[in-house]
Amino acid sequence: MRQSHPSIGASRVPVPATTPTVAPPPPPPKPSAALVNLRHLLDAGLHAAGRASGAFVYDLTAGLVLYSARSNVTRPPASVEKLYTSLAVLSDLGPALRLQTEVLGQGHLGPGGVWHGNLYLQGGGDPTLGDGTFNRVWEDGYGPTAQQISSQLERRGIRQVTGWLIGDGSLFDSRRGPPSSGYGPDIPDLGGELAALTYDHGSTTANLGPPAFAVRELAMTMRGARIKVRASARPGVTPADALPLVTVNSPPMSVLLRLMDVPSDDFFAEMLTKQLGVRFGGGGTTTAGATVVGQAISRLGVTPTIVDGSGLSRRDHTSPAQVVAVLRAVWGTPNGRLLLSALPVVGVNGTVQGIGQRTPAQGRCQAKTGTLNNVTNLAGYCRSRGGHELVFAVFLDGPTNAQGTLLLTRMVGAIAGY
Question: CA-based diameter of the chain, in Å?
Fold first, then answer.
């Protein structure tokens, strides 16, 4: 029998390839009841505040975003800005740096303890120089005093000055206020006037600016110690050939930051901002210092708009997500631990004493407030009731400050209660 063969060129029927079965991705895990409750409470708070508000909450322990609503919209941070200023101070100036105030003399010491020539009180930008009683009440007892300076001059053997005692505040510019006041004095917000030489938190009189006021107070103290001296009402610049006679130091930066952040002291913030400008920017100006702060924060991965150190200007702009990103970046680092130690405890002290009381946030959270008219913000860290470390930022724009404080109490209580 003849075998049949397929014709040349005949096509074969292709065998279909086997397609592997791919399992569909598993559905995302169902949010826990605690997370659902947290989101519900934060939604309610932002709904009450209005659509100009936003918030961001991140779980550092689990590495998860817990909540985000309008968190990338930039708004005025108000004094939450001091978180940025604090981190710039820690990274650039360092926690151990102390600011110096000096007395220098042009002339010579003659028989009988007579200083022939002028003495110059040269300011180094220390915001804590002041009267001992003032410092005990307002600066937690920190800060050098006129009595310390006078005692050192006595030990130098000086009993009389033939010339003048002159104040030198030339390290900073002559602008006495922040950008928010057009750089004019802003006593209601700052509590004093800015200068490289200040006394009693930038105190002045109608006729004496900060350097001249400081000189007057020192001269009065010296005369009380029977050192004859005249105080000049006009500031000056210390001559290059003047001899150093006395040096007093501020507390270290780690302490200055607590004195700034716990009561949210705008004067301290602007003084430290100008200090950053002197050492790392274009001079002792707010603009130079704000640029340095911005550069320090950009190294942490965000680029907010920074025009001052206190947050008083509404031209400062940042977002809840940016604040949280910065706080995440420094968590667990030496500077992060120092920042945390400088912050007040919610429901316990400082500007957050009246927030979060009788909620899970009381004693569990450390945070920085930020308040302008109809701006009520809060940002910081919480140890949640569930044992997680959380970082958060809540920006409320629109409600009155009284309404905003009530909303923040509910919201931070919800965060800590997670």
Answer: 146
Q: How far is CA 209 from CA 188, 212, 214, in A?
A: 17, 6, 9
Q: Which two tokens stand for residue 52?
A: 């100009």
Q: Are 123 and 198 in contact (CB under 8 A)?
A: yes
DSSP alpha helices (H): ranges in 183-285? 187-190, 210-224, 253-261, 266-280
Structure tokens at 171: 């390290």
User: What is d(CA 251, CA 144) in angstroms, rounded to the nearest whole number?
Assistant: 8
What's the CA angle centered on 184, arms 180 and 190, to 5 degrees?
Answer: 65
Tell me if the pTM is above 0.90: yes
**List of residues 6+ apart from 381 with CB closer than 8 A:** 327, 331, 340, 343, 365, 366, 367, 389, 390, 391, 392
**Residues 392/58, Cβ–Cβ less than 8 Å:** yes
Neighbour count for residue 93 (Cβ, 10 Å): 20
Say if residues 339 and 86 touch (Cβ distance below 8 Å). yes
What are the phi and psi torsion angles at 250 (to 5°)?
-75, 170
* pLDDT 10s digits, 180-196: 999 999 999 999 999 99
pLDDT digits (tens, 9 = 90+) for 387-404: 999 999 999 999 999 999
Tokens 């220390």 appear where?
A: 126
How many other C-beta atoms are found inside a 10 Å radius of the C-beta of residue 147?
Answer: 15
DSSP label at 247?
A: E
- Residues 6+ positions from 83 with CB-CB distance below 8 Å: 323, 326, 327, 339, 368, 379
Q: Which of 230, 226, 247 is nearest to 119 (CA)?
A: 230
- Calpha distance 307→293 (Å, rounded): 9
Domains of the chain: 33-94+255-416 (3.40.710.10), 100-251 (3.50.80.20)
**How far is it, in rounded angstroms, from Cα 341 to Cα 399?**
30
Per-residue pLDDT of 328-357, as tens digits, reads 999 999 999 999 999 999 999 999 999 999
